[in-house]
Every structure is written in C-alpha cells, then in structure tokens.
Design brief:
Strand content: 35-45%
Structural class: alpha+beta
Number of domains: 1
Length: 199
Amino acid sequence: MRCLRQSLLCVLVVLTAQAHAGDEEQRDMVQRIFMASRDVHFKLDYPFVTQMYVQREQGNFTLSSGRGLLSVNDTATSAYDEAITHKINNFYKATNTRQHWVLNYLEPDSRWLFSFGYDSGAEADKLSIEQSAFLGLAKNFELSRDHHLMFTWGQWFGGKVTERPCLDAYDREYWCPNLTAWKDRPALNTDPGKTVLRT
C-alpha cells in the first residue's frame, strides 16, 4: 500500500509540474476549503461561489485567470519623440460590463470538489477578450492522520485576446500605448503561468 501511495505521489507531481495554473485565486480558495473540511463538523452540502465580480474595465485589463494583461495611461507618449502625445483613454474603455464568477460543489460522500466558472470577457475599441469558461476538479487525499495530499486542476477555456492598431492620418498602424510601429509592439503575455503541487 505504501508503494502505491508513493507511485501516486510521483505521478501527480509529474503531471502537476507540467500543468498550467488556471487560476491562482481559485487554487487558494480550494486549499482553504479542504483544510476546513478536515474538521468532522464541517458541512457544505450546497453549491457555493468562490469568485464573483461585475465591472466595466477602463485602462486595466486582466485575463480570466486574474493575471494582469494590459495597463495603459490616459495619454500615450511616442517612444520615438517625447513631444508627441495623444489621449488614448477612450480606446481602452470597455463598452460592456464584464461578469466573472466561479461556482463550486463539494460532493458530500466522495469529497471531490467540482468547479465551473464563466467570464463574459471585455470589448474595447483597441482590445477585446472573448468570453471563457472555467472547469476545475480537486480532491484531498488523507495519507495518514497527520499527512495529506491535495490534487487540484483547473483551467479557463477561451478568453482569446485580440488587439487592434491605432491609425495615423496616412493609415499607418501604431500600437496605441506608446505609439510605436504596430509590427514593433511588444507581445502581450496571455500565458496563465505554471503551477506547483501543494501539499
């Protein structure tokens, strides 16, 4: 039995080391729920929300996972000539209200935690984030009275990010935040990041 547990641990470590973190905030909430559920008197027999917000983004945009995507000032200054400035705040003002939530259910008998989430995305003149859905699964394995192993997996699906250029009077394309040529713009980091196994 001990050999089986060690093999399971090795497999989970390898799988988790290669997995993307769908949402660090969700992982932290799952860990807290499982720690509380170790108490014999803990009962949670109904669905519960771990994340919920409704907002209209202006200048600061995040991925569905909560990772920062882009933050812009109201005014852009050219990277080529500091004397050239333009107001860009209306280009990065969302036209929709973003809705984001994650709903969870802790199955009473098996103690598996199932999570489902939704993010409506954001739409601005020069940046859009498509809607996305979150799926998650978690389980706390009791190895002994004083030791446990927590397995969590979660991922946002969708949420494609699209940027659009600013145009000058000659229809040349520029990246709005610093007025550099569109082809020279920095790539936005849409990677959700890596996660590590937590025990």
